[in-house]
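hi! just following up on the protien thing from before. the input was this:
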Amino acid sequence: MVPDIVIELWHEGHDLEEQARRDLDRAARIRRHAASLARDAGYPSGATALALGISQQRVAQLAPGRRGRSGAGG
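and the predicted 3d structure came back as:
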């Protein structure tokens, strides 16, 4: 049998990984929400990208726009 500390550390690592996954999921939801708020407020994807330090393509991934709106190339 392995020492108790080995099992304890294994479980602690597992618990921390699960918490990290939950934190990453929450972070992704928050970022998508931020990009969606900018889109819904009418900010151009270029301005949003510049403000957030990401590409316009990433803005489109985070907050897929409604294509075909006036002025949008769709």
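Residues 4-40 form the longest helix (37 residues).
Residues 68-74 have pLDDT under 50 and may be disordered.
cheers
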